[in-house]
Amino acid sequence: MNDQHLPPHHRETGADTTDLAAVLAGIERTNELLTRVLAEVATTPSTHAVFVDAGYVYAAAGRLVAGTEDRRAFELDAEGIIEAFIDKARTIFPDSRLLRVYWYDGARRRIHTAEQQGIAELPDVKVRLGNLNANNQQKGVDSLIRSDLESLARHRAISDAVLIGGDEDLVSAVEAAQGYGARVHLWGIEAVGGRNQAEPLLWEVDSQRTFDLDFCKPYVTRRAAYEPLSEPAPHRGPVPAREDVRFVGARVAAQWLGARGRDTLADLLPGHPYLPGAVDQELLVEAEGLLGLSLRGHADLRRAVRDGFWDHLRMQF
After folding, report:
1. Which of 160, 194, 222 is the last residue of a domain?
2. Both 72 and 114 in a single domain?
3. Do the domain assignments include residue 205?
4. Is the pLDDT of residue 253 over 90?
5. 311 with 252: CB under 8 angstroms?
6. Same domain membership, residue 182 and residue 157
7. Distances (CA, A) of 251 to 61, 188, 199, 308
8. What confidence tens digit (pLDDT) does each residue in 66-109 have?
9. Which of 6, 67, 208, 266 could form a Cys-Cys staple with 10, CB 3.0–4.6 A?
């Protein structure tokens, strides 16, 4: 007897039974699929990458071991320290595989030096170059770090990122990666007095680690015959206090007011607390000249220079 000859309530019961069976079959297929996905996730190792601001490593390690940030005054065993970073990451993330080490450095016209070519040939290492200006200062490195860190986190290529650097400009890179679920671990090198990593950066990361003199010493060798040519003598003595550096920033602002005019500097006020890149670079270079000290590796002192600059400008307008 087919359904059309059944009473209405019998026909509905048969249809309901068929629909229920279809639903149950669908749920079972979904459960099987979820079980397979979870099994694959459970057997897929997590992945980490190491992002190294080479300028920070050279400056911080050079100052700690050789007493200078001038690269010409010492040799850094880049291969050795990269391998040490990889080994340290392996112990901290024992169940994770290394994607690669990203080594960010500066070069004139982004053309690799012989040393950078050697680093690029190392296994599991990718060299990324920003520009190097006339004052041997890196430009564009922070944006490269942010781009790579954000892209890898967005595509779930990494679960953990080790960031070795100190600039406050890296805060946005950390926030972007964390927004996609990656954990960011900040590694640094022991500072000689004060800090060489920006406090806002320390606040944002998921964990911190600092390498001391004993860790860095095997990888830094001072060149005994080095003599600076037409360069200011390396800074000797204690690092200046933050308030003294802040005063220097105000002094630069006062000099600029006299030389550039009020209208030019008044145009900067709407951008507070940020300065255009070119203006900020000029400010730091002039401050370094007055201090007789490179501010590379001194994120707190760079902020003090900027604070003093803004303090003076805001008092004038």
Report:
1. 222
2. yes
3. yes
4. no
5. no
6. yes
7. 31, 31, 25, 8
8. 888 888 889 999 999 999 999 999 999 999 999 999 999 887 77
9. 6
Q: Which residues contact 150 (CB under 8 A, 6 or more apart)?
A: 173, 176, 177, 180
Q: What is the DSSP string of 200-258?
A: HHHHHSSEEEEE-HHHHGGGEEE-TT---SSSPPPP-SSPPPHHHHHHHHHHHHHHHHH
- From the list 314, 67, 61, 295, the residue with the least C-alpha distance to 168 is 295
Residue 236 in any domain: the answer is: no
**Quick one: 123 and 186 in the same domain?**
yes
Q: Give the span between the Cα atoms of 111 and 163, in whole angstroms.
A: 24
| CA–CA distance, 213 with 68 (Å, rounded to integer) | 14
- Distances in Å between the Cα of 97 and the Cα atoms of 39, 53, 156, 162 are 18, 21, 14, 13
Q: Residue 97 burial (CB < 10 Å; 0-12/13-18/19+)?
A: exposed
Residue 233 lies inside a defined structural domain of this protein: no
* Model confidence pLDDT, tens digit, residues 256-291: 888 878 787 888 888 777 777 667 778 888 888 888
Express as a percent the part of the chain with pLDDT over 90: 34
